[in-house]
């Protein structure tokens, strides 16, 4: 066999191998397939929602106010005559954006801080540990309320507050995983080849703890959406008339007693759908990124 023939018969690597493994994971576990299907629905709504909804989510029509679900308005209308289906779909972009940016921020800060704490120990561990303990001393949602109230109820501040209250969770998970692996054989080998400590931390330790961190990130995505909705529900989140699930539930709660149940029900179902999706998604993401599970 020639060298060229041997090269063409090599197993695909890089992105192709990752995609092939992802297909295997999704097909092997129906629950994971359902979770990725739900995630795809959320991505489509967040990306294309403003272009596919039948009505302007901000346009009011008092003549059509408080109409129940019908062929014209699938989820009914609210007290201002706005189409609830359009508002629920468009709101997915804002809620997903808050979740993604807050999780990315806390992973970049809390995850790296936790790895450094577990890998280096000493004063690094003590400083990061005291910061985490200080944050954990407060009820987390109350702390988020205080941060947003002090800084202002903007989307940026909601992202910052959500990242801060999740900081200790990422630190503890990353610290425990890094502490287990800092004396592993492959870490010692990397050190003997002349790699710096920070290079080992970022290129050797971090990839090996990504599976458990992916589960944590998936769970935090759902919590971030709930946190943003909760802040909006009590008036400290996104301001009306911006479509947001928490605001819509708050607006609809006043009409449940009078029989207009659909105003709060459908945004609440959207919240439940998103949180349920991310709770199921974690195990599938772990299986995809874990090198020990490659087939």
From TrEMBL:
InterPro entries: BP-dependent_transpt_permease, MetI-like, MetI-like_sf, OppC_N. It is found in: Cell membrane. It comes from the Bacteria. The keyword Manganese does not apply. It holds the Pfam family BPD_transp_1. Residues 92-282 form the ABC transmembrane type-1 domain. One of its GO terms (cellular component) is plasma membrane. GO terms for biological process: peptide transport; protein transport; transmembrane transport. The chain crosses the membrane at residues 31-53, 96-123, 135-152, 158-174, 219-238, 261-281. It is a multi-pass membrane protein. Its main location: membrane. Keywords: Cell membrane, Membrane, Peptide transport, Protein transport, Transmembrane, Transmembrane helix, Transport. Belongs to the binding-protein-dependent transport system permease family. This is ABC transporter permease. It comes from Xanthobacter flavus.
């Amino acid at each position: 066999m020639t060298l060229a023939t041997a090269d063409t018969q090599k197993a695909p690597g890089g992105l192709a191998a990752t995609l092939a493994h992802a297909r295997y994971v999704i097909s092997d576990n129906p629950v994971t397939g359902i979770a990725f299907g739900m995630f795809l629905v959320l991505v489509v709504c967040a990306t294309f929602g403003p272009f596919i909804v039948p009505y302007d989510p901000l346009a009011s029509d008092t003549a059509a106010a408080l109409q129940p679900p019908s062929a014209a308005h699938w989820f009914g209308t609210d007290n201002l005559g706005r189409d609830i289906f359009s508002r629920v779909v468009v709101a997915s972009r804002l809620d997903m954006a808050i979740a993604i940016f807050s999780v990315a921020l806390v992973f970049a800060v809390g995850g790296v801080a936790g790895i450094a704490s577990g890998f280096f120990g000493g004063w690094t561990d003590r400083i990061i540990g005291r910061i985490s303990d200080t944050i954990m001393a407060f009820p987390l949602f109350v702390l988020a309320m205080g941060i947003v109230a002090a800084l202002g109820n903007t989307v940026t501040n909601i992202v910052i507050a959500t990242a801060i209250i999740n900081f200790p969770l990422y630190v503890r998970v990353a610290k425990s995983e890094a502490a287990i692996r800092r004396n592993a054989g492959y870490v010692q080998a990397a050190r003997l080849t002349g790699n710096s400590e920070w290079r080992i931390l970022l290129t050797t330790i971090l990839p090996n703890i990504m599976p458990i961190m992916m589960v944590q990130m998936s769970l935090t995505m759902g919590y971030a959406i709930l946190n943003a909705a909760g802040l909006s529900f009590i008036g400290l989140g996104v301001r009306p008339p911006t479509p947001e699930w928490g605001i819509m539930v708050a607006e609809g709660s006043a009409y449940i007693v009078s029989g207009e149940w659909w105003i709060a029900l459908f945004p609440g179902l959207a919240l439940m759908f998103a949180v349920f999706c991310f709770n199921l998604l974690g195990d599938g993401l772990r299986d995809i990124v874990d090198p020990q599970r490659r087939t």
